[in-house]
Fold this protein.
Amino acid sequence: MAEKKITRIAYIRPALWPPANESVLRSLQKQFPEAEFDVITVMEILKKQYPAFVVFNTASALLNYGRNIFTRRMKLRGAFQRTNHFFDYAGQVIREHLQGKNYSFSFQIQSIFNASLPGLPHYVYTDHTHLSNLLYPTFDRRKLLPESWIKKEKNIYQDARLVFTRSSHVTDSVINQYNIPPEKVACVYYGANVPSHTAPNPAKYVDKNILFVGINWLRKGGPDLVRAFEMVQKKHPDAKLTIVGTSPNVTMENVKVVGRIPMNEMEKYYEQASIFCLPTTLEPSAVVFIEAQSHRLPLVVTNIGAAPDFTVNGENGYLVEVNHPDQIANALIRLLDDPKLCEQMGRIGYQRTVERYNWDSVTARMKERIIASL
């Protein structure tokens, strides 16, 4: 049977950020070079064309999630995109943009609205499901969204022709927690948003520079890393810790707090690091893990979410349990003791990234499944 010609694709994203929203678009454009892409950025449309809705929905978010917002269990931006009003209105706006146009298929990234249009093949790529939060030992159940919202989320997966996920953890959630048939769900993994560095640099593993990259200091396990670093310094007083992405009040010796920086400045911190450590307490799929591997860094990460997909304990890094600074410290000390081991693990992780965790490989897997399903 001749392959169906793909002429026009609707690419639907909530916003320009995070960078993966743009990375996926660019890579899909390479997979379908003959197709015209219509890019629908939902938040940009709402802000420009429906400012009254933005005001109304902000009030709705405060009404529904005010306690969680004011106690900092939830950010206003996240709450804004998780009201029933936002879900329904965003879907309506998207369908208005899709109507009457001859698309080959539509593709949405993330699962906080339903962009499907009856009769048009629709695909979803998501890094998370809401119910997968229940699989994390530290999840605060007070942050669980209403059942009415979760039913809407389930409709996203039911209405899609295929659901692509970033990890086996999320794949299992879509199948088992939302009762979606396994044949409709495919784990295609994800890629890095900064360039990989192909040239090995064995000297950097001797520098004993531990790198942390994350915006949410508490959720990413920052306090556990600081406690672990105190233990590390007893064995390696010359070890260093660099914190990028956030600015916690940490005044220990040999700790450098960089804070938020532009994406194009990240590469130098990966290149200067010896080890990457992110003992996160809740993480569906952190792109920084893959960025670290693409720069040949051994990993010390928590055994949750997507981490077991790309971390083979003792091969390219170490998996530790959540809220166990002693395990973090022991893993870091093993690596600091042996720069050759760091180099070996970094090489294995880099090879795994080249083969599986890059956006072109990810979208090639998507394209194969999409073409077969049309």
